[in-house]
Design a protein that fits this description.
Elements (H helix, E strand, L loop, with lengths): L11 H17 L7 E4 L6 E3 L3 H6 L6 H6 L8 H10 L8 E3 L1 H7 L6 E5 L3 H10 L6 E4 L3 H8 L7 E5 L8 H15 L4 E8 L2 H12 L5 E7 L11 E7 L5 H15 L5 E6 L12
Parallel strand pairs: 1-4, 1-6, 4-5, 6-7
Antiparallel strand pairs: 2-3, 7-9, 8-9, 8-10
Helix pairs in contact: 1-10, 7-8
Length: 285
């Protein structure tokens, strides 16, 4: 309950997460049938980069700030960057950063829906204010894993679940696996995008190996600002994507190097099939 994303909004981890989120939603838009997006760690939805929290860390400067200042970028980033520019319309420079709810909302069609869950009381209230009167968006104040149980499967039967924990709990990987197991039993065909931090590599590999044992096809996409030589800092982050859309791997093969170059990420990138993690790593204890 203490984590506030405002301190980290727009950093390199947000850039990877939100660029991939936009890609996934653009894939869903290719078919006419409505889809539903479930964001179970929704935050406030929008962040003031000139505010006290963001000003204390300045992390956005090495994230969205670098990306916007970079040279030509692939068209794969157009949807994501359009959402960033939309919240800054009329501003002389970068001032606001859209969270995943606003990015997702920008890519909904008239029959699509967005279901948001946020447990922090102040952030949940801010989220409700942001989407007041929007009939395509429903905001819940609930624990993320309880929300997965309550909201799945959606009536649309097509869609995406974004799981983006703050990783305050020491057993978050274990909680993620339990929550995902329950979610997949309720909605085995949904797309699941799971964000995770990379500090110490071993717990990450153990998590991915157990995630693969859930039996769904998956991709792993990672971006590291630093080599993984210190467990005391956030070296990088990744997204594990279950039930990925067709040809997403091809899009990520273009996107990840472009992001690494624009963000001057010295730790490199990783793109692999999830099932390759099995038998390569020890399991979580």
């Amino acid at each position: 309950m203490n984590y506030r994303h405002a301190y980290h909004a727009g950093n390199f981890a947000d850039v990877l997460k939100h660029a991939v989120l936009a890609l996934l939603l653009e894939h869903l838009r290719l078919k006419a049938a409505p889809f539903c997006v479930v964001d179970c760690h929704a935050g406030t939805g929008c962040y003031d980069l000139a505010g006290i929290e963001a000003g204390k860390t300045g992390e956005y400067r090495d994230g969205i700030g670098r990306l916007l200042a970079a040279g030509p970028l692939p068209a794969l980033l157009d949807g994501y960057l359009a959402a960033v520019r939309a919240v800054n319309a009329g501003e002389p420079e970068l001032r606001y950063y859209p969270g995943s709810p606003l990015i997702a909302r920008s890519l909904l069609r008239p029959d699509d829906r967005l279901l948001l869950s946020e447990l922090h009381p102040e952030d949940s209230q801010a989220l409700r204010r942001l989407f007041t009167g929007d009939r395509q968006v429903v905001v819940h104040r609930d624990d993320a894993y309880a929300a997965l149980k309550a909201l799945l499967p959606p009536a649309e039967r097509r869609g995406l679940v974004l799981i983006d924990p703050p990783f305050e709990a020491t057993d978050e990987f274990r909680r993620l696996l339990r929550g995902l197991g329950q979610a997949l039993r309720r909605w085995p065909t949904g797309i699941y995008a799971i964000w995770y931090p990379i500090k110490d590599r071993q717990p990450v590999e153990a998590f991915l190996a157990e995630l693969a044992l859930l039996g769904r096809p998956g991709l792993v996409a990672e971006l590291c600002r630093f080599p993984a030589d210190s467990a005391e800092r956030l070296n990088g982050c990744g997204l594990a994507i279950l039930n990925p859309p067709w040809r997403l791997d091809e899009a990520l093969a273009t996107l990840l190097p472009a992001l690494a170059g624009a963000l001057e990420a010295k730790g490199g990138t990783r793109l692999s099939q999830l099932d390759r993690a099995i038998d390569r790593q020890t399991m979580l204890s």
